[in-house]
Amino acid sequence: MSGFNLTRTALLFASLSLAGSAALAAPASPFVAMAGTWSGGGVLSTTDGQQEQLRCRAAYDVAGAGEQLRLNLTCASASYKFDLASEVEYRGGAIRGSWTEASRNASGTLSGRAAGDHVEAAARGDTFSANLSLTTRGGRQTVSIQPQGTNITSVSLALNRR
Questions:
Q1: What is the reported pTM?
Q2: Are the C-beta atoms of 134 and 33 separated by less than 8 Å?
């Protein structure tokens, strides 16, 4: 093999190796760890200082290699109930999708960032907006929701995989 061909072969091998390394180093979707059904509870806090205990059920359907997520979350307390559904896509650390809340006939968009076991997102709609934080570690998930413009100031949830 001539020096020129050897150099070309070495460069080709190096470029293929780097491309393979980049693909292996690409961040894994955090949606994969969320797949399945979850249940648990938490606390809903209101502007007048009241708190109510919530009971919740969640189902996460993950498609592809974790790029797509369909969520159904139902929570209820003595005075409140919410029934949330969303469809979200993950692309290179960014998440984007839509949501609907059936009991209040509300809907909107969802966008944010995801890395490792953590998701930070903003939900926006005509009549509702909130910031969301979600962490999944093994069979435990914590969710924090900070709504704006409602009498609910925060929702904190702890869910366990069923």
A1: 0.81
A2: no
Answer for the pair 109, 124: CB distance below 8 angstroms, yes or no: yes
- Look at residue 137 and give its three-state secondary structure: strand
Buried b / exposed e over 55-82, threshold 16 CB at 10 Å, is: ebebbbebeeebbbbebebbbbbeeeeb
Q: What's the mean per-residue pLDDT of the chain?
A: 86
Q: What gap in Å lies between CA 132 and CA 125, rounded to an integer?
A: 14
CA separation for the pair 93, 26 (Å, rounded): 9
CA atoms of 54 and 8, how far apart (whole Å): 64
Query: Residue 46: beta bridge partners?
Result: 152
pLDDT in tens, 4-52: 333 333 333 333 333 333 344 456 888 999 999 999 999 999 999 999 9
**What are the backbone angles phi and psi of residue 14, rounded to the nearest 5°?**
-65, -40
The count of residues in the chain is 162
pLDDT tens track for 91-117: 999 999 999 999 888 999 999 999 999
Q: How many CA atoms lie within 13 A of 87 on its CB side?
A: 1
60 vs 123: CA distance, rounded Å: 18
